[in-house]
Automatic annotation (TrEMBL), chain A:
Organism: Bradyrhizobium pachyrhizi
SUPFAM superfamilies from the UniProt entry: Periplasmic binding protein-like I
UniProt xrefs under InterPro entries: ABC_urea-bd_UrtA, Peripla_BP_I, TAT_signal
First and last residue of the signal peptide: 1-39
Protein name as annotated: Urea ABC transporter substrate-binding protein
Annotated NCBIfam families: urea_ABC_UrtA
């Protein structure tokens, strides 16, 4: 075999093959090193890592537009540090490994100063090693299950204690709910949220029999059985409510089935954590009157900042009907915090910006001022809204002040002693019992 | 539950007050101050206002509260004036009843939350125990059955005595029984009668009522209640089987509808059309466009929107299907696996095209009134939209079958399927038949989209969620056989719905997939295998 | 005998392919490690990772081509074997994290601690050892393919029925792995890997080594496939592809041939998955998605079904196109490009890139067709299949 191979190599094939390979490698190297060379120094690049196609495009496309809008506004004000901001848009196509690939591309090839992106937890988990390895900054704008505090990530969406727990408190106090259906899509966010809620409800004296937990696959569209079960569970004589962590796509058929089977909010209210203005835009909301959602922002909240934001957003998108929602506000806060931090340290160097961010304050759209905490989460107000007939929410309750986001849930056995502190302890999972920073090897 | 009762009790109490005062002439005085509280935009003030207005006995109280329920009550926060927009569009001052030309600019609808909505609802419910409208009396009786408050017993009894409509009379009797069951000083024999009445009702709520009865009852009553509970439970268990079967049939009809078009393009023509789901999606978007036009131009036609959308969706998807066949598929006959590749590419293009044209988010497709709501059949709830979809699916299936059997095109299609060369020799223009067949399959996918828009998201991803299931149905039933597709769809639907309560939605679906895999081992060509030479392909 | 088969199978094009892959496997890591950063000819690390991914996809494509191009088995579920291999490797990598996870639990991976699991499920035992995981990378996909194939081929499930039940298989696995109760991390899958065999997975040296290994695996997979295709076994496979019943009537046990090549192909896909995971840094259920498997089949079709070089090339070309189109100003429109690419390739290059090139080359040389000529399509459910 060897002789045959050497013989083969000795022929013309070898030269052709080697020439081709050399050409390919050179081409690769050249194409990759030439591209960034063109990047002028008079702009600061901002990466946008949101899916524009595939299943998540439905939610994420708006966030891409939001960042483009915010960059546009900032550039009108003269940019940052005297330089214009330049957006770099990529499409990770709802494909989780592609998220990691695109993050790497943004940081290494495009040399962005910061990345705004991701929606699902799995996409964040997928890019996390890349951000740690290449030391860059990610702003993550979506409510999530918590249990994470990383040096390179800033979480501007709600942690469970900023959404789920206040919502349950509201139902207990205002609606006197005694029986609970925890319905969710089978993935990490609902699983964890429901675990936390279950522990919380039990600590408030709710019996196991009064909690029903139900999981459905992604994109579940046939809700007949489950809605009938909820109805049955709700007719046991105690006030019942549904806490829904059902993911985006499955919500429309769920609410349609609820409406058709005649479950009204006055009988069994449903409080959702993943249903916002954007999702309601696809449903006729009249049968859903009174069902609830818990968020840190609603479009209907009347503050001068919010009205200005909505007006400019609709002008920017040239669509007077375009709605705003909670993750958009999270990006708004995150973007402004990043700008402030960069201006404070007069540099876009990720290390300096990461150190500067905790403590930075930026106004939110609901009249308060949010602050970046040492655990890289932010303070936010919590609102409970009831669905109105026009696809908007009517705020029926809000927390008196701003709630600080907990990276680690107090309700879960594994994490109740952990805190994230990137200022004093320089550690994302510091164990307050053992006084040790976890994850460093014992 | 206790608080709930208090809520209901309070509401009922108010409504009775309201009822009794309606006959009394309106009193002057604090009524205007009470009405003005609606303008404070605080839920507690609104609640107080409801109570005071109801207690006032003013003739305007009832219109005010029903206006509040419908969102027709608006208030001007500056002048503290409150207005009712009447159903005929006229506006009156809520405090005085005087007509007003138009609402002030800063008047906003008085807000409600769930608790207030319940209060208002129960108040109006109690108010209508003696309403002239039987439907309202029925609703009122049912709300009394749930709240079973002792102090409405006299009203219920007098209503029962006067009642002439049979179903309403029954409801009043049940409401009376519910009150007596929970009345501490009722005699044992009365209670036993009450148990019997409630037992005869036999539904979920009767069960809830009897379980809530508690252990402090006399032994005789407790025993009767216990046996009633177990009999209702076994009855309900039987009904839940019926319910599962209905859900299965309904799911099966959805599967069938999504798969019928594929059964033609894939089963009859052998084209692996991965863009089939996108045809369904186009049908759903056609419905959206039709509804948009109707909403903005001819709102009165809204209930007919689906009827208009069906032929349009058929045409849109069918024409696109013909176009696809003429430009792509026809070059690929004899290379069927490459149709998979090309149509996959096509599905990507169509998805992105729709995403670009209509945006990536869900679009709202409303349910016409005849497709909303549900009715009770025995102890199960049947929703109208599912029922109509089932009828629609069967109709489409029947029409398709008749078309294949009795029309010239159908004959040609069958001939081409069975032996293309011979059909061509007999003078059939096979390429025309191919185009029409593909168009037909796509068009049917389009009208499936109209139906699916009623129960699912209308988004660019709509088609993706049905394509795999559709292929499973066609293959399970046997490629090339429409009856196979029918039986396959209903079998899978029913099996799925019987597995779901046992195994959960996810495991149930996995089990179905494993069963399909195993079933294909047993019958490698599906349920209804084609026989003859066509098989050895 | 083996060398004989190998030498006979190595015609010039194949030799060139092996040499090019070997050269890329050596030159890219060398350029990445030795040349100074920012130099004109230095291949940046992100490209090493990216090309490592492409090479893994190429192995997957090769495994599909082996069964589809040469034996006529169209599997629409090959992504499942790829993902299972990936999970086996991912489980090893998870166990290597040890107490460096965020909760510092030395045994349980983070996602188990977080969902209150108290002990490691039995099927995670042994994955702390590399040899065991490596064995599982081959065994799990191989065993699944063997059982599945044994059932399906024996009952003579063929054509589109087989394609659809392979799809059902991968879809069922997708749903199963989504379930958190299943113990594989649910939707998030396995991620945040630290070490492989004691080396930091993120270190440039490790990446370079993994890249080299992937190229090596591609070469080995190619040589094995090549040897099979050129042997007598290969001739029988092609006979099965072209006329299964006739082959059976000639006295060949068609099922055994199919089963062998199907299982082998699944093992190859498993290896591809195992190499893919440490380079990409995550494995999760979306790898089981039927769409992924269909896409892999499309790579083969684009490159040229029935040409091994074409399968590998197709995987690289399509994925490069995907990477290229999903960035920059074209990002919102990339699906149009990709979709159009698929349609155009089918219409204009029915034999795929390499197949078309081959026939063009043959025509140009006016010589007799090579053994490696483009494959004849089998007629699954063709409109004129009744002939």
């Amino acid at each position: 075999m060897l002789t045959q191979l050497t013989h083969g190599i000795a022929t013309m094939t070898r030269r052709r093959a080697l020439a081709a390979t050399a050409g390919l490698v050179l081409g690769l190297a050249a194409s990759s090193s030439l591209a960034p060379a063109q990047a002028a120094d008079d702009t600061i690049k901002v990466g946008i890592l949101h899916s524009l196609s595939g299943t998540m495009a439905i939610s994420e496309t708006t966030l891409k537009d939001t960042i483009l809008f915010l960059i546009d506004e900032q550039n009108k004000k003269g940019g940052v540090l005297g330089k214009k901001l330049e957006p770099v848009v990529v499409d990770p196509a709802s494909n989780w490994p592609l998220f990691a690939e695109k993050a790497r591309e943004l940081i290494t090839k495009d040399k962005v100063a910061v990345v705004f992106g991701c929606w699902t937890s799995v996409s964040r988990k997928s890019v996390l090693p890349v951000f740690k390895e290449l030391n860059n900054i990610l702003f993550y704008p979506v409510q999530y299950e918590g249990e994470e505090s990383e040096r390179n990530v800033f979480y501007t969406g709600a942690a469970p204690n900023q959404q789920a727990i206040p919502a349950v408190d509201y139902l207990m106090k205002e609606e006197k709910v005694k029986r609970w259906v925890l319905a969710g899509t089978d993935y990490v966010y609902p699983r964890t949220t429901n675990k936390i809620l279950e522990a919380y409800l039990k600590s408030k004296g709710v019996a196991q029999d009064d909690i029903m937990i139900n999981y459905t696959p992604f994109g579940h569209s046939d809700w007949q059985t489950i809605v009938a079960d909820i109805k049955k569970f709700g007719s046991a004589g105690k006030k019942t409510a549904v806490v829904s962590t059902i993911n985006g796509d499955a919500n429309v058929p769920f609410y349609k089935e609820l409406g058709n089977q005649g479950i009204k909010a006055t009988d069994i209210p449903v409080v959702a954590f993943s249903v916002g203005e954007e999702e309601l835009a696809g449903i006729d909301t009249k049968p859903l009157l009174g069902h609830l959602a818990a968020w840190n922002y609603f479009e209907s909240i009347k503050t001068p900042a919010n009205e200005k934001f909505i007006k400019e957003w609709q002008a920017y998108t040239k669509n007077p009907k375009r709605v705003t929602n909670d993750p958009m506000e999270a990006h708004y806060i995150g973007f402004n915090m990043w700008v402030k931090a960069v201006e404070k340290v007069k540099s876009t160097d990720p290390d300096k910006v990461i150190d500067a961010l905790p403590g930075i304050e930026a106004p939110n759209l609901t009249g308060g001022v949010s602050q970046m905490l040492p655990n890289h989460h932010i303070t936010k107000p919590v609102f409970i809204g009831e669905i109105k007939g026009n696809g908007q929410f009517d705020v029926v309750w809000k927390t008196p002040g701003l709630v600080a986001g907990d990276a680690w849930s107090k309700e879960l056995e594994g994490s109740k002693d952990l805190i994230g502190d990137w200022v004093g302890k320089k550690c994302g999972n510091f164990n307050t019992k053992t006084n040790k920073c976890g994850g460093q090897g014992s | 539950m206790f608080a709930n009762c208090i809520d209901r009790f309070r509401a009922l109490f108010l409504s009775i007050l309201l009822l009794s005062c309606l006959t009394v002439p309106a009193l002057a005085g604090p009524f205007e101050d009470s009405v003005a509280k609606f303008a404070n935009d605080e839920f507690s003030d609104t609640e107080a206002a409801i109570g005071e207005v109801a207690a006032s006995g003013n003739a305007l109280a009832s219109p005010i509260i029903s206006a509040l329920q419908d969102g027709r009550l608006s208030a001007d926060p500056d002048s503290k004036k409150v207005f009712i927009t009447r159903t005929d569009g006229k506006i009156v001052d809520a405090a005085t009843g005087a007509a007003v030309d138009k609402l002030p600019d800063n008047a906003a609808a008085v807000r409600l939350n769930n608790r207030l909505r319940r209060t208002v609802e129960a108040a109006l419910g109690g108010l209508t125990l003696l309403s002239p409208d039987p439907a309202k009396r029925l609703a009122a009786a049912q709300s009394v059955f749930k709240s079973h408050e002792e102090n409405v017993l006299p009203t219920v009894e007098s209503a029962l005595a006067k009642e002439s409509v049979k179903s309403v009379k029954q409801a009043f009797a049940e409401a009376r029984a519910a009150i007596i069951l929970f009345k501490s000083d009722a005699s044992d024999s009365d209670k036993l009668d009450a148990v019997a009445v409630v037992k005869a009702r036999g539904d979920q709520e009767a069960l809830a009522l009897l379980t809530a009865l508690g252990a402090d009852q006399p032994p005789l009553v407790a025993n009767a209640a216990a046996s009633a509970v177990s009999s209702i439970q076994s009855n309900l268990a039987m009904w839940s089987m019926v319910q599962n079967a209905w859900y299965g049939v309904s799911l099966g009809s959805v599967l069938l509808l999504a798969a019928i078009g594929l059964a033609i393009t894939f089963g009859v023509m052998g084209v692996i059309n991965m863009a089939h789901g996108e045809m369904v999606m186009l049908g759903a978007y056609t419905t959206f466009v039709v509804q948009e036009v109707i909403r903005s131009r001819y709102p009165a036609l809204f209930d007919y929107s689906l009827l208009i959308a069906v032929p349009l969706a058929f045409l849109v998807a069918g024409l696109i299907g013909v176009l696809i066949e003429r430009t792509i598929i026809r070059f690929l006959y004899g290379r069927p696996l490459e149709t998979l590749l090309a149509t996959w590419g096509l599905s990507l293009v169509l998805q992105q095209a729709v995403r670009t044209a209509f945006g990536p988010t869900n679009r709202e497709v409303g349910n016409p009134s005849w497709m909303s709501g549900a009715f009770e059949l025995g102890q199960i709830t049947i929703t109208y939209n599912r029922l109509w979809i089932l009828c629609f699916t069967l109709a489409v299936f029947a029409i398709l079958l008749a078309m294949l059997r009795y029309t010239a095109l159908g004959l040609e299609m069958r001939a081409v399927t069975q032996n293309r060369r011979m059909a061509a020799s007999m003078g059939i223009a096979t390429s025309r038949v191919d185009a029409l067949t593909f168009g037909l399959g796509s068009g049917i996918a389009g009208i499936a989209g109209v139906a699916l828009s009623q129960i699912d998201n209308v988004s660019p991803n709509l088609g993706q969620s049905y394509i795999i299931d559709s292929f499973m149905v066609v293959v399970f039933g046997g490629v090339g056989n429409l009856w196979g597709t029918l039986v396959g769809a209903f079998t899978l639907g029913i099996a799925n719905k019987f597995l779901e309560p046992v195994a959960g939605a996810v495991l149930g679906k996995i089990a179905i997939l494993v069963l399909i895999i195993l079933f294909i081992q047993k019958r490698p060509r599906g349920l209804f295998a084609l026989k003859g030479r066509a098989v050895e392909a | 005998m083996t060398p004989h088969i190998l030498t006979r199978s190595l015609d010039r094009a194949a030799t060139a392919f092996v040499l090019i892959v070997a050269a890329i496997g050596v030159l890219i890591p060398l350029s990445n490690l030795l040349l100074p950063q920012g130099s004109m000819f230095q291949v940046p690390t992100y490209l090493v990772a990216l090309w490592g991914k492409y090479v893994c996809y190429a192995i997957l494509a090769l495994s599909i081509d082996l069964i589809w191009g040469y034996c006529g088995i169209l599997s629409l579920g090959h992504g499942a074997f790829f993902a299972l291999g990936g999970y086996a490797m991912g489980m090893y990598l998870m166990r290597q994290i040890g107490s460096r996870g965020v909760y510092g639990n030395p045994i349980l991976p983070d996602f188990m601690v977080f969902l209150n699991w108290s002990k490691l499920p039995w099927y995670w035992y042994g994955f702390d050892k590399f040899w065991f995981a490596a064995l599982m990378v081959l065994l799990v996909p191989g065993l699944l393919a063997f059982c599945f194939g044994w059932l399906a081929f024996r009952s003579r499930v063929t054509g589109v029925y087989l394609s659809i039940i392979t799809q059902a298989m991968t879809y069922a696995l997708l749903l199963a792995f989504f379930r958190n109760d299943f113990g594989f991390g649910g939707n998030n899958g396995l991620t945040d890997f630290k070490d492989i065999l004691g080396f930091n997975v993120q270190a440039e040296g490790t990446r370079a080594a993994l890249f080299l290994l992937s190229c090596l695996a591609l070469i080995i997979a190619f040589l094995i496939s090549r040897a099979i295709v050129a042997s007598k076994l290969g001739k029988v496979l092609i006979a099965v592809r072209d006329a299964e019943s006739r082959t059976r009537f000639l006295g060949y046990r068609v099922e055994s041939y199919k089963l062998f090549v199907f299982t082998l192909s699944a093992c190859m896909a498993g290896v591809a998955g195992a190499l893919y995971v440490p380079q990409v840094g995550i494995i999760n259920p979306s790898e089981f998605a039927p769409a992924n498997s269909i896409e892999a089949v499309i790579w083969v079709a684009v490159g040229g079904r029935g040409t091994l070089v074409g399968a590998a090339l197709g995987a690289v070309v399509v994925n490069y196109a995907k990477t290229f189109f999903t960035s920059g100003p074209l990002a919102p429109y990339w699906l149009f490009m990709l979709g159009a690419l698929f349609i155009l390739v089918t219409l204009l290059l029915p034999k795929g890139i390499v197949g078309t090139f081959n026939s063009w080359w043959e025509k140009a040389r006016h010589s007799s067709p090579d053994a490696d000529s483009a494959a004849r399509e089998d007629g699954i459910g063709a409109p004129n299949a009744a002939e």
